[in-house]
Specification:
mainly beta; 4% helix; single chain; 5-stranded antiparallel β-sheet; 240 residues; 17 strands
Length: 240
Amino acid sequence: FTDDKYMQSINLNEGWNWVSFNVYNAAFESVPSILNMFPWQEGDIMTEDSEDLTLIYRDGTWNCNSEKSIDQIYLSQEYCYRVKVKHDNKINFWGTGFRTDKDRTIVVKPNWNSIGYTPMVNLPVATALAEYYDHASDGDVIKNQHEFAMFVNDGVGGGKWHGTLKYMKPGEGYMLRRLKKDTIFFRYPYYEPGTIFIDGSSSSELKGKKSSRNATTMNLVARVEGIDMLEGDKLVAYAA
């Protein structure tokens, strides 16, 4: 990177991918401008839940399901975008980092929220969501495409995020479930690129992690009662 210009590189694997943007490029103000920078295949799709947006690549151009003209739609660092590609793809673009409070602010409504990730470094979930801590309640969930963490009250006014999701990372898109009925906002922290965080836990990186045939995912939280658990026991769930 030079002169506060950074390159964001996002690998798209065949199938569905959850992505977000952590640099600003003026081309974001127009969906065709940013998307036309990269090669696409017939039938590739981009969706975003909060804006009820679906874009489909047909006959060499992007088509929109919205009543707005596609030229009036812009991409935002606030959201998670689901991108489906027929073949592996990679998008690279230059931009400036999101430093101001406004640029790093995420609005969270009741139930599920599609959220982006603005920091330029990997952060432990608790660090990334530090400003959300006072708003979190028992059972809130943060998840990416492959992992999740649930906020669990400790019984004395505090709580922790527990689950397979240990770090939030640049380029990944997230879903945040808020159980309380009010709308709030939080800001991501800003750290200079190159900052390294180690929280003492084992890495949650999935070996050979791939995209999915499905746009959405499901997580299961279960509690076993009346059984003395032993080391090595496993709880398995099957979907018919």
